[in-house]
Design a protein that fits this description.
The protein is of the alpha+beta class. It has 7 helices and 21 strands. The protein binds flavin-adenine dinucleotide (FAD).
Length: about 350
């Protein structure tokens, strides 16, 4: 009997699997290899809400765990996935300049917001009111990390590439059975596709489609995450990524002309040079009504768990939510109220 079955190998399922490896637990990951938001995501991490210049929920703890988890992926898979890159927030008008000055002088924000406002040092970047640095930001190469981790799991015989068939799942007090597989527990990490899961489809997970453009600029741009309405990030040489869109109505997985036009419009607010589009991708973020993740066990089944609701910030949230869930399962430690699945029990019948 295995300790765990994990359904979904996006950033949530992968972080949970990494934790199980660290703790010496046995497990099998099941993934259909389709529609992985984590593979479309640019993987930017940033502890500041860039609209309001305030800190995100549990910013410092999440940053620490992000470095620990993706550092462990690097060691395990012998590859580099973390790249520290400054974020340069382009200020839109005098009001934003004023707000930035006020916020960046606040004690709790000082480690994250630089007080200095600079002017552009590259003529193709538009910064009429200047730009300022958000510190402790960067990018996780999520797609590369998850592909290498998938290979690792395949080699260890811990990966099943198939659509999880919910009707084959048998749940008892001792554990779960799925075909010929028995495990003490099952953890569902299906991202937006959780809405197809009959056990958890009562949850208020809302899909928000996002698109990304890969472009080649005519000249190399300064390495930074340039952020106005959207962001522009040089990836390597003249190749850059720009994103994103937020669409709650069109929940298809294909990139659209509308999304492309929107991204090109916002790109012009940052970059005035010529470029060629190389690639255009789309995915669906699993967001939640109250903008917090959903972690915990099913109201009726103590051996059936959920790790979901990573929303727009999977890179920062997945490591900490993994810690919350693991501590709850193995040691009975109460999950933080704001992320706890219990807040939605009234929706379950
Ligand atoms: C355009 C875009 C840009 C983004 N940029 C960023 C960013 O820069 N930084 C950031 O932190 N976040 C970003 N995000 C958000 C991030 O992608 C998500 O928070 C995160 O990927 C969600 O991870 P997940 O593991 O929950 O879901 P997913 O990555 O979607 O993984 C779920 C996995 O479960 C599998 N699965 C589902 N159902 C089944 C089934 N029945 N059987 C078998 N397998 C199944 C799926 O195939 C998939 O592989 C972005 C998202 C989008 C769409």
């Amino acid at each position: 009997m295995l300790d765990y079955v994990i359904v979904g190998q996006g950033v949530a399922g992968s972080c949970f699997a990494l934790k199980l490896i660290r703790e010496g637990k046995t497990f099998l990951a099941v993934d259909n290899g389709r529609h992985k938001a984590s593979s479309v995501a640019v993987g930017i991490y940033n502890p500041v809400v860039l609209k309001r210049f305030s800190l995100i929920w549990k910013a410092e703890e999440q940053l620490k765990l992000l470095n620990q988890y993706f550092g462990e992926f690097e060691t395990l898979l012998n590859e580099k996935f973390i790249e520290e890159i400054p974020t340069y927030r382009i200020l839109k008008n005098q009001d934003e300049v004023k707000t930035w000055k006020k916020k960046s002088s606040m004690e709790e924000l000082k480690p994250f917001l630089s007080e200095e406002i600079s002017n552009s040092y590259d003529s193709s970047i538009e910064t009429p009111f200047g730009f300022a640095e958000v510190k402790q930001t960067g990018r996780i190469e999520l797609n590369k990390c998850l592909n290498h981790f998938q290979q690792y799991l395949i080699e260890k015989n811990q990966y099943l590439n198939e659509e999880f068939n919910y009707s084959k799942l048998e749940i008892s007090e001792e554990g779960i059975r799925y075909g010929s597989i028995s495990a003490k527990r099952i953890v569902f990490c299906e991202g937006f596709q959780v809405l197809k899961n009959p056990l958890f489809n009562y949850l208020p997970v809302i899909g928000v489609k996002g698109e990304v453009l890969k472009i080649e600029t005519e000249a190399m741009l300064p390495k930074a995450i340039w952020k106005a309405h959207n962001f522009l990030m040089p990836e390597s040489g003249k190749i850059c990524l720009t994103a994103s869109t937020y669409d709650r109505d069109d929940l298809t997985y294909e990139p659209t002309e509308k999304g492309k036009a929107e991204m090109e419009h916002h790109l012009k607010e940052i970059y005035t040079g010529n470029y060629t589009i190389l690639d255009h991708t789309a995915g669906i973020r699993p967001t939640v009504v109250d903008r917090r993740p959903i972690i915990g066990n099913h109201p009726l089944h103590p051996n059936v768990f959920l790790l979901n609701g990573m929303g727009t910030r999977g890179t920062l949230l997945a490591p900490q939510m993994t810690e919350f869930l693991y501590e709850f399962i193995e040691f009975g430690k109460e999950i933080d109220r704001e992320a706890n699945i219990r807040r939605f029990d009234k929706l379950w019948k």
